[in-house]
Amino acid sequence: MSKVVISNSRVNSYGSRVLTEGIDLTQYKRNPILLWMHNRPWRGTKDEVLPLGRVEDIIVDGDNLLGTVVFDETDEFSRSIKAKWDAGTLKMVSPGLDVVEMSDSAEYILPGQRRATVTKSKLVEVSIVDLGANDDALALYKDGKIINLSEGNEHFIPELVCNLNIDNNMKTIALKLGLPEVATEQEILQKISELQGTAGRVGELELAVQEQKNNAIVLAVEAAIQAKKITADKKEHFVTLGKTAGIELLNKTLDSIQPASKPTDFIGSGGDSKKVEYKKLSDVPTDKLEAMRSEDKEQYMALFKAEYGYEPKLYV
Known about the structure:
The chain contains eight helices and ten strands. A hairpin with a 2-residue loop joins strand 9 and strand 10 (145-148). The model is unreliable at 149-153 and 267-273 (pLDDT under 50). Helix 4 (185-226) runs antiparallel to helix 5 (235-245), helix 4 packs parallel to helix 6 (247-255) and helix 7 (286-295) crosses helix 8. The chain is rod-shaped. It is α/β, with parallel strands linked by helices. It has three domains: 4-159, no CATH class; 185-255, no CATH class; 263-308, no CATH class.
């Protein structure tokens, strides 16, 4: 007869799993009993069920615990189950395990797992079952009592608090992303990937806009230097001001600065005068007034008379 899978470390239908490497086979190999649906015979009970046979050649192959089913055919019940096994109607087995140690450590938790992992156990019996070994047919023993992990029955394997929190967090994340709270992990990751792509394009656009702003700041500062509002050695200071406070404040600051001027700006050498016309004498800057009085007496006297109503007396 071919070998069958008795157990492996996959997550079962109740959100737990049993580590194959942690199953102790020593005791079972001494008495490799084969039962029907994890039922043990008790004398005096109405529904007495006898053992079906034994399991031979038990080995661990990778993550799978394997064995060969042998029926003893010493009673009608054993023969009837064997007939269904030979016909392929029944073709799966399940382990009855005595739990020794459990762990909720992250290193033992797989995706979809809701309960702690059985890290150490003892194989007590193997049963022919109508459902797969890693589903409802899994039977665990606690304090000598068998506890079938079926819905509605008490579970002694604790739920993973961290996984419950993760589930709640995933629901919250899904809603924040505009997805339904029942969205799968793959749907959530896909949405995040889309948003990351959009964020990347937005980031590139923001860099381009910032570069344009920086260029505008540099041009504004250079224009102020050309207009003699500031000197070239102050360029970095005003560029930094623009980047920190913004170009609007920079422009207001530069607009408030008057260009530096000298008497030679409006009084030329060799008789070629470049006059600056003033409407009244009080408009003439103090530092230019003396130069006008000595270099442009005609304009000075006209502005003086217009301001005070009489001509000034000039002393040579």
